[in-house]
Amino acid sequence: MSDVIASLFHPVALGACTWLILLWTHARISRKTPPLAVKLTTGLVTGLILLLPVQGASVGCWAQGFHPNPSLPGVGLIVAALVHRLFGLVLLRPADLRALLIYGAIAGSVLYLHTFWSSTADLYYLGWLDTAAIWTIAVLSLSFLAAGNRMGVILLFALLAFTFSALESDNAWDYLIDPITWMVCTSLLTFRLLRTGWVARSSIRTFFSPARVETSSRFRPVSPSLPPP
Amino acid sequence: MPFLRASSVQGSPDAGDRSLTPLKRAAFAVATITVAHFATMQVTGGESSAPEQLRSITPASTRLSVRPSGDAPYHQESWISPPGHTRTVHCSTLSTLANGEILAVWYGGEREGSRDVAVYTSRWSDPTKTWSPPARVVDQASAERELGRPIKKIGNAVVFPDQYGTLWMVYVSVMVGGWSGCTLNVKSSMDQGLTWGESERLNLNPFLNLSTLVRSKPIYATDGRIGLPVYHEMALKYPQMLWFTPAADGTMRNYQLRSLPTQNDLIQPVLVPLGQDRVLMVLRDGGPDRVLHTAYSGDNGWTWSEPGQSNLPNPDAAVDALRLRDGRVLLVYNDAEHGRETLRLAISNDDGHSWNPGPVLEHEALKEFSYPSLLEDATGKIHVTYTWKRQRIKHVEFNLAWLNQATPVQALALR
Question: Parallel, antiparallel, or unpaired for β B75-79 and B392-398?
Answer without folding.
Answer: antiparallel
